[in-house]
Design goal:
single chain, alpha+beta, 2 domains, 6-stranded mixed sheet, 4-stranded antiparallel sheet, 9 helices, 20 strands, about 25% helix, binds zinc ion
Length: about 300
Amino acid sequence: MITYANFGIDCSSDDSNLMESYNEFRARLSDFCVDDDMQLYQIPIDSDEYKYAQRFAIEYPVNDYNDANDIPYMYVTESESTYTEYDELDYNKASAYLINFWYFAYDYDDMSSDEFVGFCCDKPSWRIEKCTVQNRNYMIPKSEFGRKKYAKLMLGYAASDEVRKLLIEEGLATDNDFREVTTKNGSHVCYQITPTNKITGFLDYNNGKVVDCCANCGMKRYNPVSEPYYISEELCEQLNGLNCTTEMEGPILENEDKDYDDELSTSLEPLYIVNKTVYELLKKHYPRMQFIPILPGDE
Ligand SMILES: [Zn+2]
């Protein structure tokens, strides 16, 4: 397993000292450059180069004042999110797996994801912004799912009739773990994976940060947590075949104190987790199905 941090550098100055630093950074880290035009770098966090890049980020922070006033600047940023690459060993020793299907099945052009969501409760009362959750059945055009066996939806994940049947026949899921996805006319397309078994404490265990909470119903909003993910034995004992977390994640809030428009709402989603039995069965039948390994955390 290798975890990478994401860095960016930008320089608009022709000051010779800054240019020298800029060129030094680019030369030293050229092996880690993933986008030359945008000057983006992916650097393993256990490397000397990571410490080097971090020193730059501290020395040359983003300066909004310079930006706003067109004053020449140079800055280095480290993104909050990291990227983790896993190997076979990680998949073998994982205790559970996060569903991470890559094939997208898109909504209707004339419908947004707002069509499927509503407020968390009757009297939503959030500090930063009103959050929403999916509370209606999903609808997608038949052609979007097509012959796919599984897909990512704008909210959650979809499985074909075949995948659903396999899991139910093997006793790893029940009818209630799926909700039908239809076209606007109500004709059957596929199933959304909607696990009835909810596990509590996964994001807390992974140092998830609560950024907001509904004072009325108590729903918490977590910022997404960076990989790698870990799971305790105690949490593993809560797992059925298909599971989701009680904790709800939303996109990262860049600035918690920013004044948001009252109308703005962001939908929160749980994480979808399968146990090892489901993972092994699905990989046997669908070798290219995508999951993120969740490693045992008690080692
Ligand atoms: Zn609420």
